[in-house]
Amino acid sequence: MNKILLINGANLNWLGLRDPNHYGNLSLKDIEELTTEEASKFNYELIAYQSNHEGCLIDTLQSHAKSCDGIIINPGAFTHYSYALHDALLDTCLPAVEVHLSAIKQREEWRSKSVTAAACIKVIWGKKEQGYIEAVHVLMEHIQNDK
Length: 147
Ligand code: DQA
Prior knowledge:
By secondary structure, the chain is of the alpha/beta class. Helices cover 37% and strands 19% of the residues. It has one domain (2-146): Dehydroquinase, class II (Rossmann fold, 3-Layer(aba) Sandwich). Helix 2 runs parallel beside helix 5 (130-146). It binds 1,3,4-trihydroxy-5-OXO-cyclohexanecarboxylic acid. Residues 11, 74, 76-77, 79, 100-102, 104, 111 line the site of 1,3,4-trihydroxy-5-OXO-cyclohexanecarboxylic acid (DQA).
């Protein structure tokens, strides 16, 4: 079966407890289920992974790079400074869509800059959990057009 890798980074395991005005009310498990369901409509299996550790995210990207067709990633705060994650994404040679639940462009200045975005085909922000659904569609369209 075709596969998509869903990666969530720092502090996203606390969704449901974090500020709902920025991040919505769903837990990470809810979001993973929602995204899994959306991917299954296109006959794609979703592999979900979360870690608060940058190196673990990189290890997971590397270990799934050969067996997946695309990546959806919300790196959390790593977005704003992890060049290592940028390189890891680039090195997979897979299409990646970056998602942010909150409106990163309309919050603190430091959040508006994403260093990982340059390794992604699109960044979706400010749409809460809907952003993950949209990311599945963007990825599917990209993969279809690439065939
Ligand atoms: C986030 C935005 C980041 O700035 C923040 O550090 C997060 C979550 C989002 O989904 O809106 O942890 O990536």
